[in-house]
Amino acid sequence: MAKRVAVEGSLTNVSEALRQKGYDVVDLKSAADAENCECCVITGVDSNVMGMADTSTKASVIEANGLSADEVCQQVESRMQ
Length: 81
Known about the structure:
Pfam family, one: UPF0180
Family: Belongs to the UPF0180 family.
Organism: Niallia oryzisoli
Protein name: UPF0180 protein R4Z09_25240
Strand content: 15-25%
Largest sheet: 4 strands, parallel
């Protein structure tokens, strides 16, 4: 079974790179999309704007801001081991 990763919609290059590596990629549009995912990739652009940190998933969260698609894939792979 492929490992499931939720990725924010604007990160299409990351989604494609993860799919090529055999991951099951789902669009991350709401907290419910993170359910049953082992990892979430976010842009980080609007991360914690209000200074509040409510957690809705136990999955690893990777902030892709400033990283290439390959660097994000490497982080996903290292957190899934």
